[in-house]
Design goal:
The complex is a heterotetramer of chains A (300), B (417), C (93) and D (257). Chain B has 16 helices and 19 strands. With 417 residues, chain B is of the alpha+beta class. Chain B starts with a strand and ends with a helix. The radius of gyration of chain C is 14 Å and the shape is globular. The longest helix of chain C has 5 residues. The chains are: A alpha/beta (300), B alpha+beta (417), C alpha+beta (93), D alpha/beta (257). Chains A and D meet through helix 3, helix 4, strand 5, strand 6 and strand 7 of A and helix 3, helix 4, strand 7, strand 9 and strand 10 of D.
Amino acid sequence: MKIMLYGESIEWIKQARTVADILDGETIGVTPSRELGNEAVKILNKVYVFDSIHYEPNSYYKTIYKIAEEVKPDLSIFPSTIKGRTLAGLYAGSRDEPVITDVVDLRYVGRFLEVKRLVYGGACVAVLRASTPLTICISQGAFKPSEKGENGKIEYFSRVDEERVQTIFKPREYLGIPLERAEVVVVAGRGFKKREDLEMVKELSSRLDGAWSVTRPLAADYGWADTWIGISGAIVSPRLYIAIGVSGQPLHMIAARNSKTIIAVNKDPSAPIFEEVDYGIIGDLYQVIPRLLEKIKKKT
Amino acid sequence: MSERYDVIIVGAGPAGLATAYFLVKKGFKVIVLERGSEPGSKNVFGGRIYSYVLDKYFSGWRSEAPVERWVRREKLSLLCKNDVVSLEYEIGREIDGYDSFTTFLSRFLKWMALRVEQEGAIVATSVRVDEVLFDDGKARGVRVGEDKLEAEYTVIAEGANTLLLEKHSLRDKISPKDITIGIKEVIKLGREKIEERFGLIGEEGLAQFLLSPLFGGGFIYTMKDYVSIGVVYRPLIKDQVEAKDVIEELRLHPSISKLIGDGIPIEYSAHIIREAGYRDLMSKPYGDRYLVVGDAAGLLLNTGFTIRGVDLAIESGRLAGEAIDRISKGEDPSIYVKLLRESEIIQMLKKFRGVPEVLSNHKIYTVYPEIACRILKNMYSVDESPITLRESIREATGSRFSMIKFILELLFMVKNL
Amino acid sequence: MKKMTVEERLTLTKFEVHSKPHITLDLQKCRRCDLKLCISSCPAGLYTLDESGEVKFTYEGCLECGACRIICPEGSISWSYPIGGFGVQYKFG
Amino acid sequence: MKILTLIKLTLDISQLKYESTGEPLTEIAPKKMGDSDKCAVEEAVRLKEKLGAYTVVATIGSTSENERIIRDAYAMGIDEGYIVKVEDPEILQATSIGKIVSSLVEKTGPYDLIILGAGSLDTHSYTLGSIIASKLNIPIIAGVDSLQYVDGFFEALCIMEDGAYTFRAKAPLVVTVTTEANEPRIPTLKTILRSKKMEVKTLTIHDLGVDDVVKVDLLDVKRYVVNRRKILWDASEDLEKAVDKFIEVLVSEGVAQ
């Protein structure tokens, strides 16, 4: 089986390689950067590199599509990021093959692939039967990184230019990432005494490249923020959810429950949030968070 | 706005929709304005509707309305802390002749709205009416946000919370002692379990009325796959469980939880119930170019064992339709009250006017169930010294009541129910 | 069997919450009242006492039953319906 | 300018309830127009108000709720609407939906702009817009947080994992918008009444010349149970240890060094 994967980070490529291990397939990578290509070639059988200054979906997918015409993959894998999903849709649409996103597991059953995917915003797992050729998207963290190495070949490919779309890119610091899409969300609850104290939350979130928010009372009752996380506010499912001074009322938790990992800091050991955490710190946030920030600062 | 209607109806509940239905059948151009996103999305009720009124006016309803189950078993239970005393009546008729059925009001109202729209009326949802427009005491239409909509007649069918009527000083705010709060939970149990545990076959349903010192009055209605359980909460009773926790007293009562405890709670709802009956009836539910129907007018009948709103609402809607038709032909608006009086509705409300007093007597929740449980416990407890019924009653009522007082109170209750 | 808290029960019901509250509380009037029946009689448990003994409320889980408005002896609760389409959305009712 | 907006009837996933066996009770979950689809409708109506565009809306499905969301879109200001009748569209493969939409575009178009929500959080997962673009062979700008029309160009700001992109393109074009794009309007009585009177047109897939659709071969759906580890550290006993453990978690999650 030929497996083609389009990746933009080595961590993700290692995880996608695990899918190839499961299916015992040959792995062909596609990346838009030489630097990444040089790393990827150590873990994949072959890597196609096309040079790109910046992302633009229409030219990217046409390039990947052309590479696929050479490779003829049975399975094509993209990241479950917005970029990856967009490319996967364009690619699968033009190849007229099914696309399954948010895949968390897959295996052979007879002639078919049995694919497990998350649905309903991560609340449920669906098991699907699919045949090849097939396009799937996998999220960062869905599979363990593969330990296997290869001594692959690298091939440079020229990018197809889609002139109909112009792109201007500004790097990340330019704007904070929207809450619903952030990989890390730091949220402040009623344990905070003053509005100014939210600076700690903002600092922590920016140090972790994430977004920050509050629980409903802080926004609606105290007016410390415009939006909040909760059933009536934003619903989030980040990789990491850090709840500080949050008691964990059900109307709040229902909006955060699909987070992959949950950490909480709360001085009340009987706070309901501790029933729903992976890691919990029982302690005063006014001691824990300043110390935490100090230590993080020292490290970087 | 250029659009003009003959009648604007505020509220797509049973009364509003019924009024629309009868008016549009008489050829009026009717619009119903509903604040919910769909008809029924704001309504709460126990679970039962009486069939007679639908038989009269909605042909074919038995096959098309969202009936859950036909009530075949009626049960009255007194729930003590652990023991239960029940009285049950099973109707011995063929199922299609049954007097009442269980349903979910939201679904039922969607069906009613569909019928109304099929007749040609408009049911506009997500529209909150902010005020009735009056011109020298004459209703000219309504205001919704910044929009105005005019009509020849306005029908106020706003339900138990009479916000519009109060705004225009057409009605006083109801006294706290005249309301109860219906608090309900819908539980998914699955058809098989319901039929097995409640002893039902096929389309048969059960309606259960409960009295308990733990939560006051309550009810259970069986649906196809669901069970509705509810409490009729009296907010003014001191030292009782708070309203927010009271439904759990019912759900977790040993005799109830063994029936529904493994079910999945699906929806929690609550609404006030106007309990004053005849006393609460608006003396003048009409004015120049407007009429009041349904709960808003006080047309809700509590017989003690059943709370009837939907059938009365439909009936009052019919009478309102008739009244508007006759007013438009020149009759005096008071014809509406005349029609109501001639109808059975007011007679029934009069007949049951003693009920609110009985129901507000806390003893029927606190003392009587316990006495009943003790009497039967004494009777059925077998040890070496069996007792007679008379001894049992005396033992149970003993220190608290004289026998005579107990019997008098019971007679008063029965007379008024 | 486990008792469900009211907060858990409210998650069963669907709400479309508008950013503007449909309930307002006149704290001046509220302070005059010793009974605070709103707290015991709200089936959604939306009224609570804070540390200083003042009534706090939230409107987002409001079942729109209407009880608090009628029960408040001081008339400190002004209550309107949420604007069209918002508020509680009963599927069963 | 002619704009097609695609809207989808989606489950309100915050209201999902489950059987004790873990199967979601989808039949009783409330359904609504997708949140980002609503933003797409709003965006189309704003272009109508600004540029006099003619706006069309379409949805795929066969229940009365599909008609309801079309009327909701009318109440927001859309001019014309179609329901493509398909039983259980949620189990169709996204590529089949793409085929249906591109045929719809051929039949009712051409359109300068096809706009839809970036994602509905269920089975189509942010891919439909790009599938449609590939079928129609027109460009796509996906995940738009802010859309402008300047000097004959659509200008879109998209905030992605690595930064902010501004894309500029001319019609015809597919755009998918996020819920950041705008605040959808609340219909007024006037527009609601208008929406009640408008016709909702229906089409079958055969009317569109689509002969077959491919269904997802769905074997099972179950609640995804996250077993939380519930590892607790007491900072009041040992602040340093608790903070160090916190940092260890951040490192192992890959968000700190």
